[in-house]
Design brief:
single chain; 128 residues; Lipocalin; 1 helix; 19% helix; globular; signal
């Protein structure tokens, strides 16, 4: 009987720890809402700084990459997906005219890491 109770307690504890860990790693779409100063490393034109703006309207994320000349979205995102702690945003690359995606993952409360097309690393900080 003691063995059965110990086994039950161990299973219960495992489930609680797993659920707590899963909740801690999942962020909502709201985490990504705002302005992000991001640097993409190793692009053909060199390391590139960009500003990413994400808004939530009617429960749906939208946004894009800010054009520094106009301070408005110059490259809008065509599709945005958020799963667990990762945002994936798709856009049309103006130079090539093809669909490209970038991904951002929560690093901590104000920092993200990610990549463009899983080839070029990115790091970013939420603007204040």
């Amino acid at each position: 009987m003691k063995t059965l109770s110990a086994l039950f307690f161990f299973c219960f504890l495992s489930v609680v720890l797993f659920a707590t860990n899963a909740q801690a790693q999942t962020v909502s779409e709201d985490y990504f809402v705002g302005t992000w100063n991001v640097t993409a490393f190793g692009l053909p034109q060199g390391d590139t700084n960009m500003i990413i703006q994400l808004d939530k309207k009617d429960g749906k994320l939208s946004g894009g990459i800010i054009d520094p000349a106009t301070n408005k979205i110059g490259t809008p995102f065509t599709k945005i997906n958020v799963a667990a702690n990762k945002l994936t945003a798709y856009f049309i690359a103006q130079e090539q005219g093809m669909e490209v995606y970038l991904s951002l993952e929560k690093k901590d409360d104000t920092n993200v890491k990610g990549s463009i097309m899983d080839m070029f690393n990115m790091e970013g900080t939420k603007a204040k």
